[in-house]
Amino acid sequence: MAAVSLRLGDLVWGKLGRYPPWPGKIVNPPKDLKKPRGKKCFFVKFFGTEDHAWIKVEQLKPYHPHKEEMIKINKGKRFQQAVDAVEEFLRKTKGKDQASSHNSTEERNRRNSSEERGKQSAGEEKRKGSLSEGKVKKGTGEGKKRVSSVSSERGSKSPLKRAQDQSPRKRGRPPKDEKDLTIPESSTVKRVMTGTVAGFKWPPSVSEPVKDSDPHFHHFLLSQTEKPAVCYQAITKKLKVCEEETGSTSIQAADSTAVNGSITPTDKKIGFLGLGLMGSGIVSNLLKMGHTVTVWNRTAEKCDLFIQEGARLGRTPAEVVSTCDITFACVSDPKAAKDLVLGPSGVLQGIRPGKCYVDMSTVDADTVTELAQVIVSRGGRFLEAPVSGNQQLSNDGMLVILAAGDRGLYEDCSSCFQAMGKTSFFLGEVGNAAKMMLIVNMVQGSFMATIAEGLTLAQVTGQSQQTLLDILNQGQLASIFLDQKCQNILQGNFKPDFYLKYIQKDLRLAIALGDSVNHPTPMAAAANEVYKRAKALDQSDNDMSAVYRAYIH
């Protein structure tokens, strides 16, 4: 690609990894986001998707010279919406420029008119003064009075002329802070995009249709807020950064559903397999937000409540997949995930070209890779999307979604992810989300075991467990998780919010992940042994906080 001269504010076509060129704008990155080392690159904000990324110069093309070429090779609906957003932005920018230029011209005309009147007034005064002086020479006493009068007029000039004489600038030029009110397009773009990016507003008429397919919940679609500057500051404080395989950095903002307000549900038919602690909350939120959902569960009775809420009933996983556009699944472990896909009347039997399958189960990378291969071999599309959270967060629609696989499918799931979660991350190729999820749960499970260990140590040494909790809640470890799990222990209430057997399963898989790359995980291994003891004490179906009982028996 030939080298191009680009600068801040330019509209461009950006090439992001293996995806087609997309229209965007070169903008200032957040202050705390460092520029990648190596080749020269720019921070680009992509229209329509609301995604941001560092893009290398050789992967960028100027927008206008290549517009027709790109439109010919990209025919998708989302692509057209992105191009429409660019054109609407250009119209808005042009309108602002014309208004600014018109205002500037009017201001200069007004000032020139005022100064011309001032010149005429001064000339009239000078002419009158000359006439009066002529009369003085001819007259006597009357002439002296006129001289005095003229002298007085000269000493008290008009306010406009006095101000002009006191000003150091030349006549006819506007003040320094007003002289460049007419701004060329590139300057306008720079003014809009530098400093506070919140000043950049997308037109609502363009943004609304894009809502259906936006992969990042319109994190930076600031026209949807009444106070964009405040909202942008709130968003940037919660930026999450993930490195993709392409080497570019993608940004997603947390709590995006709250920023966006209402959700426009996709018109695609949604299927959901598995109505456990997590799946039940997810389906409930999908229905609340207006999605068309068909459900299936191994224990059919669990479907009844959702049928009453408007869901449709699928008799088998294969039937659900064959009748829906996108089918989600959330089951307990690798064996259940494989059985669901490969078993009798399973998912694979309903897959045909174009059908989409999203596995939200927490499993190992090998399992999810195997499932992806068999789905894709039948012409289907695959995305893994395990979720971080618990039953309460699932019910509240506040899960964190970790996705990997088919990027286009990730984008198609946008409204679903908005309904069920507060944040989503796209992590690249299949297997990455599974690995990340296991690491997250390894940390969480180890922390829970440490909390239980600390509370039991406090008890046996004669210290107040409640006081320990109060101290922890006032320190750096303070969190909702810490407080809730400690309250469970203090109250002896182990109603499951996250099954103990599942956190132990995740610890086991995380340890195996470490072994596969010869990386030690001694803390996770120690915690895993404590959970195994708790399982031996019949705590499997209790909340993970029941690991406490492994220390007191």
Automatic annotation (TrEMBL):
CDD domains: PWWP_GLYR1 (cd05836). InterPro entries: 6-PGluconate_DH-like_C_sf (IPR008927), 6PGD_dom2 (IPR013328), 6PGDH_NADP-bd (IPR006115), GLYR1_PWWP (IPR035501), HIBADH-like_NADP-bd (IPR029154), HIBADH-related_NP60_sf (IPR051265), NAD(P)-bd_dom_sf (IPR036291), PWWP_dom (IPR000313). It comes from the Eukaryota. One of its GO terms (biological process) is transcription elongation-coupled chromatin remodeling. GO terms for molecular function: DNA binding; NAD binding; NADP binding; nucleosome binding. Residues 8-66 form the PWWP domain. Residues 91-188 are annotated as: Disordered. Keywords: Chromosome, Nucleus. PROSITE patterns: PWWP (PS50812). It is found in: Chromosome; Nucleus. GO terms for cellular component: chromatin; nucleus. Residues 91-145, 162-182 have a biased composition (Basic and acidic residues). Its main location: nucleus. Belongs to the HIBADH-related family. NP60 subfamily. This is Cytokine-like nuclear factor N-PAC.
